[in-house]
Design brief:
Strand content: 25-35%
Structural class: alpha/beta
Number of strands: 9
Helix content: 25-40%
Bound molecules: adenosine-5'-triphosphate, magnesium ion
CATH topology of the domain at 33-57 and 79-204: Rossmann fold
Radius of gyration: 17 Å
């Protein structure tokens, strides 16, 4: 059984004008040691797949299983969410807190503790050793992206969902992120959405989604 299993999943967002069918029969599974890359144009449903895994949206039809359970009520969704490191596309840091305080707050919300030494080491690796005591609005876009990544990696998640982890980064910093993901790969299963060709090499499986339909699959 996979860590994540989608079986013919349809997701609809309700809107004033009727609704948007964002996923139209998506089926895939993520193995325990796998890195899966999801590619596809803007608006094709990539982020929606991640939200369905987190139980933030419920399928209209089909089933989503994560760690063998369906995150279909708030209690289960919370249990599932605590195990997942989710790097959002837009960022989730609280602007009143420093980066370090954000990481602490994030970990405590998930009932985990942080090892300051290893968080500092990871920050150095990500080339943001000096930002831990800064507030998110004092960082550049690329620094903020890496600080968000630091936060979601710092409390040892059991599954990683990374929404465009290398966007906003220059080539060198993108390379560092890919290197770190390569080190983690095989230890923590991960689903990455991206257009970055560097991440194709990293992944064991690539899915392409267009208009809510999976159109291509490649094992590497
Ligand atoms: N909360 C929402 N309410 C209504 N429609 C939504 C909502 N969130 C997403 N959508 C629509 O669902 C579709 C899929 O959106 P999604 O965010 O999954 O795309 P994406 O592939 O992640 O795009 P991008 O590459 O731009 O991040 C789009 O048509 C989008 O407009
Ligand atoms: Mg998206």
């Amino acid at each position: 059984m996979g860590v994540v299993e989608f079986e013919d999943v349809f997701v609809k967002y309700e809107t004033y004008t009727g609704g948007v069918l964002a996923l139209r029969g998506v089926t895939f599974s993520l193995g325990e040691k796998e890195a899966l890359l999801i590619m596809g144009p803007s608006g094709s449903g990539k982020t929606t797949i991640l939200k369905a895994i987190l139980g933030l949206v419920q399928p209209l039809h089909g089933s989503v299983r994560v760690f063998g359970t369906e995150p279909n009520d708030e209690k289960r969704a919370l249990e599932v969410r605590r195990k997942i490191g989710y790097l959002t596309q837009e960022g989730t840091m609280i602007k009143e807190l420093t980066v370090w305080e954000n990481a602490l707050f994030y970990a405590r919300g998930r009932r985990k503790s942080l090892d300051e030494e290893s968080v500092r080491k990871l920050a150095e690796r990500l080339n943001i050793g000096t930002v831990l005591d800064k507030h998110p609005n004092q960082l550049s876009g690329g620094e903020l992206k890496r600080a968000e990544l630091l936060m979601v990696l710092s409390d040892n998640p059991e599954l990683l969902l990374l929404d465009e982890p290398t966007s906003m980064l220059d080539a060198e910093n993108a390379e560092t992120v890919v290197e770190i993901l390569n080190e983690i790969k095989g230890r923590i299963p991960m689903i990455i959405t991206s257009h970055d060709p560097k991440l194709v090499e990293l992944s064991d499986q690539t899915l392409k989604i267009v208009g809510g339909n999976l159109v291509e699959e490649n094992g590497h």
